[in-house]
Amino acid sequence: MGEALNAPIRKTKRTRRPFVLAAVMLAMFMGAIEATIVSTAMPAIVGELGGFSLYSWVFSSYLLMNAVTVLIYGKLADLFGRKPVLLFGLTVFMIGTILCGFAESMEMLIVYRLIQGVGAGAVMPIATTIVGDIYSTEERAKIQGYLSSVWGISAVLGPAIGGFLVEYVSWHYVFWVNIPLGILSMAGLWFFLHEQVVKKKHKIDYLGAILITIGISSLMYILVEGGHRWNWVSLPSILLFSVSAAAIALFVVQERRAAEPMMPFSIWKEKSIFIANTVSLTTGVMLIGISSFLPAFVQGVMEQSPIVAGFALTAMSIGWPIAATVSGRLALAKGYRFTSLIGGVCLVAGGALFAMMTPTAGPIWAAAGSFVTGVGMGLTSTAFILLIQGTVSWQQRGIATASNMFMRNLGNTIGAALLGGILNSRFMSYLEENGTSGEDSPTLETANLLLDPNERTSLPAEVKVLLQDGLTVSLHTVYLGVLLFAIISIVLIFFLPKKRPS
Question: How many CA atoms lie within 13 A of 240 on its CB side?
Answer without folding.
Answer: 19
